[in-house]
Write a structure and sequence with these properties.
Chains A, B, C, D: It is an enzyme of class 4 (lyase). The structure is a homotetramer of 368-residue chains. In chain A, a hairpin with a 5-residue loop joins strand 2 and strand 3. By secondary structure, chain A is α+β, with helices and mostly antiparallel strands. Chains in contact: A-B, A-C, A-D, B-C, B-D, C-D.
């Protein structure tokens, strides 16, 4: 169960950065969902490296193949196996990083835990694993399209290092227009210069990503330990380099009074509840309220930088390391589609879990 | 699986705030661990309400009973059933909150999901459920005492509303000396006045809690979806009112450069790796490094306040609600022992998962 | 997960034969199901010991209490905790069986595994644990009554030692009329004499039980490893003293040709498929076909007999043991309600799992 | 979780009979185990079709590829992905079986459940899926070779239709010498003639297979619902066409008295317990005793026969069907390596689960 997530829509990812292939085994897919490779490829292409100067220059086509679970363009209810071949595994020399532990990477902990590790490109701990998540997210999106057509899942960057968006300028349409998926046209320009400077100096920077789920029904989430926020937190924290996860107000909730944090409830014109604000991020007691579900996470700066860092070798000798190679100055950029994919998987899983226990749709009605 | 957590050391909590009892069914307990009710009561008493004027005046003895799994003072390897009877269920009138949804509470979402809810004291969504977690954590602590004796797990508050600790004054010994478990004697005084003011005005405030695990071996955590940080994030986010979880730098990682965030590695005098800093919070690639494991979470302010709030009734009519009753102005205070308990459960679970797959202790050696 | 079964309707049993209590923690219960203690007690009373001379003379009222998950007579969707107190724990001397391993019992294996065991009445390995299963089965029956009202689950004995039923005399109404739950009035008489003889000589005998589920919809069972027959086999084999499980033809399938084993398919007058026979036991490819689901299992003879048996002590010394005490000459009799309860849990669980993945009811239609 | 088995050593199989490929995603593999494709191929070749006239003439090389989890010839602790390409998917016409339900096959139930099915070669319900199990079993065997070197797992046929082995002639060495894996040289000859006759007449026959695990330590199995016999029963019942599972005496236990069924215990010369007989099949209370673990299962006759059978079409019209094509007259033959593979997976999984909870080896000692 170590490489799987989800209760019913259950995704197991497999594969290393420089092995023959990587992929996802996706179990519990609803039957009859229209699905083909192009539909999944669409989402993978958003994450694909080498698309602009801000992401790694590793050039992988990242072409996904469906090996099972689909017949004549529709899912059959049996496991869908997704495979992405690794084609650009440069035959470079890995002997240095096989001996030295790169600070900030999982080299030292994989070694300590297992007594063996695949040093090529970080092996299993490489961010390349997230391609499998995005592919699985493509299945989740296709299934959501059938089970709950109105749901929209959007991710975007809200901060990169010292630069943050101005929410007064928030523009959904801007997200797809810039390489940072930032919903703020002014920021998009500033960030380009900022990141260019970091890239040229061989430095790197962290990022904050927000994922919003709009149109999800009330009632998703199963207290106490399969709460919707619990599962979102786990999903996001499991992404490489993520160090913090927030729902709604997030860490800032610690600073507020009860008056400031209250989301008052009114009855909307359409006969459903309307909230005066969304400090809760759309989740109360672990269950969705019908408001936008708002999740945020922080990605640490890429640990691979040109400044030499002190480390040790497997033999325990002191050493210095400079990580050359094809790295993203802000790995957080490519975390946007990954966060969206994880949210899609969690929402679908909870829709399925809800109908297992309760049936179709929310059960309690408000008003007549 | 909705009310259970843990892979092998598996805790299922049950019970409502005003039902006859609540408790935890704890499966996967290692055999031969010395355990009695007093050992668990010790931890429960730290969380017990009504101990000072800052926590709810509900007076529950919270006396735990062990109903199974222990024979002649030692665990047998079979499930341990822990039961805490609810004795102070004041026979008050719940008809108002049975009809009106309290803003910020799970009233509306439980209703929407299930079409039925126990309104007495919040039912299953009450913070009272956390007593079962603390009791289960007592078993985890006892087992850790046998399996990995050097591990120490400590929680404390780092922020309450506008007030934060000064890390320059950090003092481990201070934690047990004040009602806030704050590791800063000066803050302890200031906070008392601050909270007293909030309490008298019928307001409430959020809090930030930090839990540190010292002495855990390297190698805990099973990538990719049973990472140690993933499971800690899920454990903490599942606690009532928690809105954010951080490991090490947490959300602040988004602001840093690679140079600022790097934890360089040296060889210590005792032949184990030493890190120059701990931005990582003791976890790299989801696996513990042997450094202190640092986890932080934010608890929102208690939603029950004296200021009237706008809401609706089950019938969809507009209404106003004032939550009287016995409530904590800062529910985050009592979240400290809960966070510790969750950490204890996660660490024990991962020790067991590690020895399942790898065997006793870390496998890779550094040096010689 | 060691003491739990079920995918979504998840039952965890806990407790020892002579501890303060035993019970079941039942998670994933659908909300809104009418449930009270009497409804569960009804099923428990069928299993209760001491009702006639053929079952153990231990006199337990086996009164069940519901501690959570029910509000105003209906389930709330939160875990239901069931507790049965052990009241007739005779303060007898267990020092002999604490030292000597009773042949055929789990004494030696529990000792070897855990290095500690509760010898009082067999501890956790006592058949008394099955009371918790029957109680949980009562919840499953109540939920089935709401989700799929037409389902009927009936168990009965088909063999006791050398005596077998004559299927030509099969009579559903007879089952409730005799202490053996045997659907054959003639056999009921013969068996009484046969068992009386065994009982008086201090011997014991095995039994074969059949459980039939009528009226279950087609489509239950999730290939490949959550097949309906897989889960039934696991459920029945987990019952104390069970050594074999069969679906439909069972072990006899090894003796047949393809022609003999074929269940041909016709279209029934009501527009649903009708099968010419039921060698398959209602399950094809792990999925229910709409035919009766037929499951059979064998219970070994009670190991506690008056004839002295050779054994060893914990110290490895040779010894002889005679098991006195209150034992059933045919423990298989009381396995009938246990088998029914397990079937009820499995069927409900699969109904829920089916609606998670596929939705309400079978999806493919036959005919217009 | 529908296509996965195992608690910690967790196998998920995927793929259809006539899709591009099938395989197994194997999680929880211990690190450092020597493994390459040849080691797995060895076991797959035993199951390979087309090796003699008694098994299907479909000619698949069944060449397995390892796509992840192995580095420089040793497992890394990350998931091992095994893929077997389907190369002999004859482009035959599946339009008839796409419309008509073959009696005894899963055609009708897959249709009813999912409303869609892949008719080519039975899709997911084809016995071809068992290749993935055998491959996964190869990993389990390799890991057992490291963790518990003395364990031997052997399967063989004990019955084919009217023909059964004579246990007086039991010969371990004979198993590998005949196409039936029958441990009785005389039977091997008789069975060849018998099956030849059935094959020529287009008929088929059932089989009984026994799997024995020798040298497993005492203490494997985790009561109550992860009992070793429970998990073996589930594993065997999940194999295609299996209708019954037995441990030790199996269904025959229903016929015995307590005296007949008793396995008395002596102290062996080597200081470990010795049993006078093995009615228990090596498992007491769900935990291994150190004796041989004996598991038996029955496979029904291949449903595809030349005799026309009555059935219906998807439209509900009456029809007749004759299954031509490449089928095994006794599919039970190829179930022998499958049963061995499942046993290997279960034993490894329980070794790992045991060391998670208890540590290395049994805990309780007998003697001194």
């Amino acid at each position: 169960m170590m490489n799987s997530f989800g209760h019913i829509f259950r995704v197991t990812t497999w594969g290393e950065s420089h092995g023959p292939a990587l992929g996802a085994t996706v179990d519990g897919v609803p039957p009859g969902v229209p699905l083909d490779e192009a539909a999944i490829q669409h989402w993978l292409d958003r994450r694909k490296p080498g698309q602009n100067k801000y992401t790694t220059q590793r050039r992988e086509p990242d072409a996904v193949r469906i090996l099972s679970g689909v017949y004549e363009g529709r899912t059959t209810g049996t496991p869908v196996q997704l495979m992405i071949e690794n084609t650009d595994q440069r035959s470079k020399d890995y002997s240095e990083i096989a001996e030295k532990f790169r600070p900030g990477h999982a080299d030292i902990t994989y070694w300590q835990k297992y007594g063996i590790r695949d040093p090529r490109g970080g092996g299993r701990s490489s961010a390349r694993e997230t391609a499998a998540r995005v592919a699985a997210g493509g299945i989740a999106r296709a299934a959501l399209g059938e089970l709950a057509p109105g749901i929209e899942i959007r991710g975007y960057m809200t901060r990169m290092g010292t630069e943050a968006i101005d929410r007064a300028r928030f523009d959904w349409d801007e997200i797809e227009r810039n390489p940072f998926w930032v919903p703020d046209a002014t920021a998009a320009g500033t960030w380009a210069d900022y990141l260019d400077g970091l890239r040229k100096s061989g430095s790197s920077v962290g990022a904050e990503i927000e994922v919003v789920v709009r149109g999800a029904p009330a009632g998703l989430g199963a207290p106490i330990y399969a709460k919707l926020d619990t599962d979102l937190a786990a999903a996001m924290m499991s992404i490489n380099a993520v160090k913090g996860v927030e729902i709604g107000e997030g860490m800032n909730a610690a600073r507020l009074t009860g008056e400031e944090n209250a989301d008052e409830i009114d009855m909307g014109d359409d006969g459903t509840p309307v909230f005066s604000s969304n400090h809760a991020g759309g989740i109360l007691g672990g269950i969705s309220s019908g408001q936008d579900i708002v999740c945020r996470f922080a990605v640490k700066p890429t640990s691979s930088i040109l400044t030499p860092r002190r480390t040790i070798t497997k033999a325990g000798e002191p050493a210095e390391i400079v990580t050359k190679g094809r790295h993203d100055p802000c790995v957080g950029i490519r975390a946007v589609p990954v966060g969206e994919a994880m949210a899609a998987c969690v929402i679908l899983d909870h829709l399925m879990l809800h109908r297992a226990q309760v049936g179709e749709g929310p059960r309690g009605t408000i008003g007549r």
